Amino acid sequence: MRARRTAVNDIELDLLESGDPDASPVILAHGFPETSWSWRHQLPVLADAGFHAIAPDQRGYAGSSRPERVEEYGIASLCGDLIALLDEAGHEQAVFVGHDWGALIVWDLARLHPERVRAVVGVSVPYTFWPGRPVEFLRMLMGDRFFYILYFQPVGPAETELEADPRTTMAKVLWGASGEGFSPPTELAPAEGTAFLSGAAEPPPLPWSWLTEDDLSRYAAAFEQSGFFGPISYYRNLDANYDLLADRSPTLLTMPSCHISGDKDLVLMMATGADERMAAELPGYRGQTLLPGVGHWTQQEAPDAFNAALLTFLNALD
């Protein structure tokens, strides 16, 4: 893996990459709270398969640029960063692979810039068919019960909580959403007095089966550097993103697409019927792969199984 910094779309991004720079690009978009390091098991494998794999630390994360306004983390800017990386690579199209928030970005990128997308892979998060503006819908749905996306809306409280001890934050988040650490909530907590890490289990000592002491240290250092304002501000743009894309139909996804998820991922549990609906409404959809025993951190928890699923999809492209 090679590390470098590049100026694109009026910001600077740190990135990891592998493979021949002239080869067909695969751009990997990480989720929350992650960095390009979340693709450490994919970058060399994609290079060996003949691709140029590019994984940025997206805006607001680690050492990449950290714009100061919430609006600068909207979907047009997030997609613009990835398209600028594609332009820099000198290709008209790329395969875009996104995990968690990265999946939301690449699904939307396929509607905003379909001509630039050779194929799209949503990891963990399926294409989401919101019935209305997401934050407004969630407020109506959740009422006075806690939901993290609603907790993230005001600037300040979430940053204060998560930045108090980034290492502890990352350990609890990574363990709690993993296949090994996950336990389905039995009831929803009240919004009043509940924070993101309320009730989070104490993680066991490292190493885990899929995470080392070095991995956790890299994540902790990244968020000590960046803080959480930028990463959380992605969530603060959900309604504005919905408005921007309101007239961009899912029928624009004529390019090949697929979904890869762990079968113990809470996101999948909340997205009942997503596979069937994607099959019905996304013209290029080629199906879902479920990885047994895997939680939210799909490509990190089961890299061999994930890589096999991804390469099967990529090798079937025209």
Textual characterization of the structure:
The protein is α/β, with parallel strands linked by helices. The protein has one domain: Alpha/Beta hydrolase fold, catalytic domain (Rossmann fold), CATH 3.40.50. The chain has 14 helices and eight strands. It has an eight-stranded mixed beta sheet with strand order 1-2-4-3-5-6-7-8, sandwiched between helices. Helix 3 (101-112) links the parallel strand 5 and strand 6. Helix 2 packs across helix 3 (101-112). It is globular, with a radius of gyration of 18 Å. It starts with a strand and ends with a helix.
Identify the overall geometry. Answer: globular
- What's the helical proportion of residues? 25-40%
> Architecture, CATH level 2?
3-Layer(aba) Sandwich
**DSSP strand tally:** 8
Could you name the CATH topology? Rossmann fold
> How many angstroms separate the termini?
27 Å
What is the C-alpha radius of gyration, as a whole number of Å? 18 Å
Class per helix and strand makeup: alpha/beta
Q: How much strand?
A: 15-25%
What is the fold's blueprint, element by element?
Elements: E1 2-8, E2 11-18, E3 24-29, H1 43-48, E4 51-56, H2 75-89, E5 94-99, H3 101-112, E6 117-123, H4 134-142, H5 148-151, H6 157-163, H7 166-176, H8 213-226, H9 229-233, H10 238-244, E7 257-262, H11 266-270, H12 274-281, E8 285-291, H13 298-301, H14 303-315
Parallel strand pairs: 3-4, 3-5, 5-6, 6-7, 7-8
Antiparallel strand pairs: 1-2, 2-4
